[in-house]
Amino acid sequence: MEEVSESIYDHPKYYDLVFGADCAAELKFLEGCNAKHLEGRAERWFEPACGTGRLLFRLAQRGYAVGGIDLNPKAVEFCNRRLERHGFAAAVEGDMAAFKLAELRDSSSRSEPKLWDLAFNTINSFRHLGTERAARSHLECLAGVVRSGGLYVLGLHLRCTEAPPSETESWSARRGNLAVNTHMWTLERNVPKRVERFGIRFDVHTPTRQFRISDELVLRSYTDRELRRLVKSAGGWEIEETYDFSYDIDAPIAVDATCEDVVYVLRRTAERA
Ligand SMILES: C[S@@+](CC[C@H](N)C(=O)[O-])C[C@H]1O[C@@H](n2cnc3c(N)ncnc32)[C@H](O)[C@@H]1O
After folding, report:
1. Closest ligand 1 atom, CA of 54?
2. Which of 86, 170, 206, 255 lies most in the core, judged by the most C-beta atoms within 10 Å?
3. Which tens digit of pLDDT belongs to each residue from 12-31?
4. pTM of the full predicted structure?
5. CA of 51, closest atom in ligand 1
6. Domains of the chain by range and CATH?
């Protein structure tokens, strides 16, 4: 099979199929976070590292004002093209560790920047921030754009210290004539440096072409304790509740050293970051 070594994020059409096929549980959970942890309806939703906007798009369709930021221009273009087809515009290109409210866009077309009610980042994108400094800067930037009392729903895989981690994952997605088989596997877990490297490949099947996109993801690792220490040091946020990737709003979890998938619900405190 023909093979190209490229970033999977440079292929938003395939990324969106692979990760966007089933958003229902995440959306239900996010709306559940709103209902359970915020008073009233969150009207304004912001996603740092929004990618193709698979969640933003569906939230916009439900009537929320949405906005996002992502480093990858192809993902941002894909995100905005789809939103614009439905009358919205929302994503900007930029670094989630260095942004200000005035630089963001808003699908409700307001001219004045306005703070967001609920931010979310559900599938490990936060771990793309390779240093403690960048991660802290991200939380500080976010504290500058989310209103006091608002939420940041942050989902990530932790480094579990008392259970063997999962090392491979495979899944398939299909839309019409397009099918993508995805395989992801661990290349390295460097505990002292807190770096984990994963191989990922998309095997793309169309009626006229079959090819493989191969990439490597480099992610910073966190234990629960490291994540909590970071949140405390950044200021402006407190951890309100923890869940896992079963996305059951009625089943919060107590995080221990065997937990691999955790969703932290952070609350923006009144104190300035
Ligand atoms: C796993 S994808 C998630 C996309 C989207 N949040 C979703 O749930 O489908 C990770 C995204 O993080 C983006 N990203 C990585 N580092 C970033 C940074 N420093 N600032 C903004 N986006 C970043 C990538 O371009 C990519 O679109």
Report:
1. 9
2. 255
3. 999 999 998 779 999 999 99
4. 0.96
5. 27
6. 5-160+221-268 (3.40.50.150), 161-220 (2.20.25.110)
